[in-house]
Each structure stands twice: as structure tokens, then as C-alpha cells.
Amino acid sequence: MTLFDRYLLRQLLGTIVRVCIAFIGIFVLIDLLSARVEKIAKYDVPPWTVVEFYLFQIPVILFEYNVFAVAVLASGLMVFGRLAQNQELTALLAGGVSLRRVALPGLALALLLSGCVFTFTETLGVQASALQRDIEYTYFRRTKDAERGPRSWANLGTDKWTCHVLSFNPLALTGQDVFLHLNRPDRVEEIRAGRIFWEPERGQWLLEDGYWYRFDPQQEWAGSSTRITQTPAPFDAAPEELFALEQPAGGKSIVTLAEDIARAERLNTPTHNARIALNEKVSRPLIGFIMMLLALPFAARIRRGGIAVGFGASLAIAMVYLFIHFGAVGLGHLGLLPAWFAAWIANIVFFAFGVAMFRRTPT
Which among 209, 219, 358 is positioned nearest to 292, based on CA atoms? Predict the structure, then answer.
């Protein structure tokens, strides 16, 4: 590592840290004044709890809101921009140092930071997300959101029942208008019930107010029916298994999310949105590296304006990136794009653009 490498790394790392702190401070201030002050007074939230809430929210601000990537881009533009503005870049190139060699320390740092981001989000970031969400519901909302709607599962229990619930409340773990169906070579069974609910003490789903029909295909569908007042459902899948994908992906590691997806697929639960989130967990940490790749070519072309131009250019590039990324993710959630494509297309486009810009940078 040369003296220039150490100098450039100090400049880049110091600028990244300062920009991240500045963005975090701006976000916290805006969020506190616009969304929290009223609720802090209303619910008498302790000051230390407010501090904890924002400390636990830092990973979300940095990585899920892409503040870290913007900071890397802004830092690269400012540091490399100063090299270009002060003719230091010209002197290095004239001295026989290639543009690739000049960019190497910044790219190596960005790649290292991307690895650190991935490791952090998969460990402490998962815990921080869960703790932040708990504080949100305990002190600022007091009630959790419940999206009531139809639910369907297949392959339940040893007999592989299919279950449809017309209206289900995931917080109360209760649903209305229940239909269960089992079709096997030796028998066909149907259950129609008015209500299903989870009984935690017994560890069972209970059915109420309905009928259990049994048919025998070998006897020309002669069958019987049993009145249901309250009886255990013919499957033992716990709520954690049935509703695993309804928990925020930010509070799960890649391994946990992949396991939940595999479990949901066995129950014939749609997993497309979860697969987008899984791909985003891998693609998001690489944004910092891609932004650093973009920084040098842009900085070499922007030789005036200093910090103001650096921030302006970084925000403009970030807005275009976010537009492409969230547009693709939105189309992915609508089922119009494959999960991997929706999560990776912005990275692919910007990486290709960065490589093309880098090659065309005048030396």
C-alpha cells in the first residue's frame, strides 16, 4: 500500500462517516419533528426510549433507505473531484499512474464496506430491526396493524388438507367462513365451519359452528356428516409456520427468510414478494461498490463546484437509481417481473453504466 493509497483511503473513509452522520441527523430531526413529538407527548414516551428507538433505526436509515450508498457516492465524488480540481489527478496520470490504479483504493474500500454491510445487516441489523419495531408498536402506535383478508393453505397435516378462510385476522388468530377439503383415493372429506381460531393453551386450531362431511368413492359417494360445535382442526401447523412470510423481512436473516419461503411453498402460499425481499438482501449491500465505481468517472468530468456539485450530482444519480429500483420492485410485486430481476436490475444497469463511463473517462 503506497502513501497515496493511505491518503485516499483516509479521505474517503472520513468523508463517508461524516456524510452518513449528517444524513442520519437530518433524517432523525425531520422524523422527530414531523412524526414523533406529538406521540411522545401523547403517550408519555420516556426520553431514553426515544433515543433507543432512533439508535435501533440507524441500520434501517443507512441500508434500507440507501443512505449509506448515497454517502459512498457523495464521498467518492467529493474526494476524487478535489483530486481532479486541484490537478492532482492530471499529475498522477501524467506520471504514468493508470486511472484504474487511481480508482483501486476507493473500489477496494467500497467492496470491503459492502461486505461489512452484509455481515452487519445479517446479524446486529436483524436484531435492531426487531427491537425498533417492538418500540414502535409499544410506545408510538399502541396497536399493531391487522390486514384482514382471505387466506389459503395446502398440504396441511399428515393427510394434506387444503384450507380456505374467507376473512382472517392475523393478530387475533381467528377467521370466519372456513372451508377445508381432503381428496384421497379412499375417501373425500369436507369441513365447512363458521369460525376457526388458535387456542394457545391446547396448541391447536379449533373449528366452530359447522359440519364435517365424509364421502366414500367406492360406495357411489354415500357419506355422512357430523355437526361441529367446537372441534380441533385436522392439522397442527402453528401460527408461526402459517404466517411466517407476513413478518417483515428486515427482521430476518437470509437463512431464516429462505427457510420461511421453503415452508410457505410446501403450504402453497405465494412467495413471490418474499423472494424479491430475499434477493434485495443480497443486492442491497453491493450498491455502495457500484456507487464508488460511478464516482471517479463523474468526478473526472466535474472539475468545479466542490462540495455543492458533489452533493448535487450524488443526489441526482441516487434519485435515478431509486426510481429504477423501486419501479422494478413495484412491477415485481405486481407479478410483472421475476423476483431476481426486480431486485437486481438497477444494480445491473448502474454497474454496466459505471464500467462504460470508466472506460470512456479521458486519461
Answer: 358
Comparing C-alpha atoms, which of 308, 290, 295, 289 is closest to residue 99?
Answer: 295
d(CA 306, CA 74): 11
Average pLDDT per 10 consecutive residues for the chain, totaling 363 residues: 86 92 92 87 88 91 87 87 79 81 90 92 88 84 67 86 90 90 86 93 91 76 79 88 81 89 84 92 91 83 56 75 90 92 94 87 68
Distance of alpha carbon 332 from alpha carbon 279, whole angstroms = 12
Rg (CA), the chain: 27
| Beta partners for residue 197, in sequence order | 174, 206
Per DSSP, the three-state class of 153 is strand
Distant-in-sequence, close-in-space partners of 57: CB < 8 Å, separation ≥ 6: 28, 128, 132
Minimal CA–CA distance to 324: which of 361, 353, 362? 353
Q: What is the DSSP letter of 305?
A: S
8-state DSSP, 190: E
Choose among 224, 240, 255: nearest CA to 123.
255
- DSSP alpha helices (H): ranges in the chain? 3-31, 37-43, 47-59, 67-85, 88-94, 99-122, 124-135, 239-242, 254-266, 272-283, 287-301, 306-333, 339-360
Q: Which among 196, 342, 357 has a CA at the least distance from the CA of 273?
A: 342
The residues, any chain, with a CB within 8 Å of residue 309's CB and separated by 6 or more, are: 77, 81, 302
Please give the backbone phi and psi of residue 302, each rounded to the nearest 5 degrees, phi first: -105, 95
Burial, 173: exposed, middle or buried (Cβ in 10 Å; 0-12, 13-18, 19+)? Answer: middle
**pLDDT for residue 349:** 92
Distance between CA atoms of residues 59 and 64, nearest Å: 7
How many CB atoms lie under 10 A from the CB of residue 8?
A: 20
Could you tell me if 113 and 105 are in contact, meaning their C-beta atoms sit under 8 angstroms apart? no
pTM of the full structure:
0.80
What integer pLDDT is reported at residue 37 of this predicted model?
Answer: 87
Question: CB 295: neighbour CB atoms within 10 A?
Answer: 30
Pairing of strands 174-183, 188-199: antiparallel
